[in-house]
Amino acid sequence: MNKIFVYLIILLLPAAAFAQPVNNLSDSSTAAINQYAVLPDRGYTFEKILSDTSLVFIDGDSLRSGNATNYWLKIRINNPFHYADVYNVSLNLNLNNVLYYFNENTQKWVSYQNGLLVPYKGKRNLNEMTCVLQGQTENILYIKVEASALQKLGYNVKPLIKIEKSVYASKREQKAWLSWITSLTVLALFFLNNLYIYFSIRDKTVLFYLIAQLGGIFYITAYKRFYYILFPNSVFTSTVSPNGQLHSFDLSSLLMHGGILLIMYGVVGLTQSFLNTKKRLPVMDTALRTGLLVYVLFTVMVVVVNIFVVYLEDYTLLYHNILALLLIAIMMCTCVVGYFRKLPAATPFLLAIFLPLFFMLGTTLYHVFISFNDTSDSLMPDFSIISQALAFSIALVARTKSIHKDLKAKEMEARQLEFDLKEIGLRQRLIELENQKINADIRHEKIRNELLEQRLEVNQRELASTTLYLVQKNELLASLKTQIQELNQLYPDNKHQGLKGIESILQSNLYLDGDWRKFKLHFEQVHPHFFENLLAKYPSLTKNEIRLYAYFHINLSTKEIAVLLNIDPASVRRAKTRLYKKMAIAEEGDLQDGSN
After folding, report:
1. Contacting residues for 208 by C-beta, under 8 A, at least 6 apart
2. Disulfide-capable partner of 259 in 4, 44, 218, 250 (CB 3.0 to 4.6 Å)?
3. Which SUPFAM superfamilies did the record assign (predicted)?
């Protein structure tokens, strides 16, 4: 009996030495599984793992670099609760993992596969595997882990395993879906609204806003890892840290960088276009263009290296975020400078850009100082994207109002200019009409002058003919008178009374006033108001002196005047001298009266 007891103790010692510790669940929502056993895979099937007792799982072992491409993990979990519950098991080395657990309902082992290299499953989280743990019993889980990423590493890794109640994971998933849908809805509404505005006015500022919004859609979808649901995943490069954390650059990472580039390009372009920095702030415009160029080149270089060469995201992310901080600082400085220089619409733009830049700054600082990768629970990007859409949309509305105000002012100026042009046209038309009237008056006056000239010529001819007639008549009468006188001298004794009557008639015709009146009439037609002006200036002139001056005025010769007046030429000259002397004395008297 004692020998049998000793043999039993000897047989149980190895079992006690290799007994695997059990992980006990608690009331907390999430717990870390620190105790698990490791078995390198040599092409084993799961049935062999269950049935072959020669396969030994080593408790607390690590995954050795170059030892195997796959490992089996065995986990013992005690569920102290009275009921079975659904749990999510996550492994930070999540290339391609398969979880096996025993289903009490079907009395069969059930597998659940997940990971970055797993064919498309339509899930957002690629490191969570679902299982059911029975209550008040010890549950055994097996996980087959793909460790191909460890082949080129020079160190061993010990993956971190977490277990979480599915209900809490579902709440977190609902929160992620709600925040993503809310962000996308806000972005889509503002995007469609401003897309309509852009096609209406073709404003370059609105185009930059749309680019930033499109980048926000790409970024928030990649940030929340929803591209894993939309598309099959592609891993370009990857590495594993000593704690087993898998770091990879995949399609979601590529689209996230693309979204950030679109956001930065759109916000910088929006700032430049909104404030017209090229003309108004050339120094800040150069800083913005240079900062954006450096950021874009650095991002493109990092993305190309991560896709085609080696994973460098963990090493470049800090510098990437520092460049983003610098670019954000340049944009804020530009807005502040524009505000102090009182640029048009600078105040609403500064107020609008402050909030999204604040959240962008907070997101960047979170990445720099708190966590490089694990930000899935942070709502900072959602606030940043939503505030960007809302604030910039408000700024665009303010800018649109400013543009409309300027357009109204320009329209008023255009109307005023149009009115002025019409007024100028009317004035020009009035001037043309006045010119036409003046030309018509000139033509009328010309015709009138021509008629007056013709009439003057007629009057002058009549005056000349009348004067000639008077001269000839007086000459004839004087000749007849002379002949009668000669006859009387030849025949003094034979004087006939009829000849005396004729001589008397001839003498009276020499001084006929009717002839003078006829001459005066024609003279005044040629020289209007001549006699009135002459008498007004020389009121002391006699009728004969006025008659004599009129003959002088039409340039009759002394002989012709002598004939008209029936005197000899010498008498005419003496009368002319007396007349001019009298007129000169009258002018001197007028001068003296004027001086007195």
Report:
1. 265, 266, 267, 269, 270, 273
2. 218
3. C-terminal effector domain of the bipartite response regulators (SSF46894)
Within the chain, which residue ranges are assigned CATH 2.60.120?
A: 21-168
Q: How far apart are CA 434 and CA 427, in angstroms?
A: 10
pTM of the model: 0.65
Q: Which two tokens stand for residue 228?
A: 């894993």
Angle (CA) 45 68 120, round 5°: 65
Contact between residue 90 and residue 162 where contact means Cβ atoms under 8 Å apart? yes
Neighbours of 328 (CB within 10 A): 21
3-state secondary structure of 142: strand
* The predicted structure's pLDDT at residue 592: 46
> How far apart, in whole angstroms, are the C-alpha atoms of residue 120 and residue 379?
27
Q: Return the CATH number of the domain spanning residue range 170-404.
A: 1.20.1070
Task: Give the side-chain half-sphere CA count within 13 A for 435.
Answer: 6
Query: Residue 166: exposed, middle, or buried by beta-carbon count in 10 A (0-12, 13-18, 19+)?
Result: middle
Pair 582, 540: CB distance under 8 Å:
yes
Q: Which residue has the higher pLDDT, 504 or 14?
A: 504
Q: What is the pLDDT of residue 8?
A: 38
Say which CATH topology domain 21-168 has.
Answer: Jelly Rolls (2.60.120)
Domain with CATH 1.20.1070 in the chain: 170-404
- Which pLDDT band holds residue 100 (cuts at 50, 70, 90)? very high
| CATH class of the domain whose range is 529-596 | mainly alpha
- 251-275 pLDDT, tens digit per residue, is 889 999 999 999 999 999 988 988 8
Q: Per the structure block, which two tokens stand in for 175?
A: 């929160």
Per-residue tokens: 23: 């992980």
Distance between CA atoms of 424 and 462, rounded to whole angstroms?
A: 54
Rounded to the nearest integer, the mean pLDDT of the chain is 81
| DSSP bridge pairs for 39 | 72
Rounded Cα distance between 195 and 207, Å, is 8
CB atoms within 10 A of CB 295: 20
CA 414 to chain centre: 19
Burial (CB count <10 Å: 0-12, 13-18, 19+), residue 492: exposed
Q: Which helix (H) or strand (E) holds 24?
A: strand 23-24
Supply the pLDDT for residue 98: 95
CB 485 within 8 A of CB 541: no
Dihedrals φ, ψ of 73, to 5°? -115, 135
**Range from 6-10, 373-377, 396-400, 508-512 that averages highest in pLDDT:** 396-400
Query: What whole-number distance in Å separates Cα of residue 189 and Cα of residue 547?
Result: 112
Confidence band for 502, pLDDT divided at 50, 70 and 90: low
Cite the residue boundaries of each domain of the chain with CATH code 1.10.10.
Answer: 529-596
What single-letter amino acid sits at 270? L
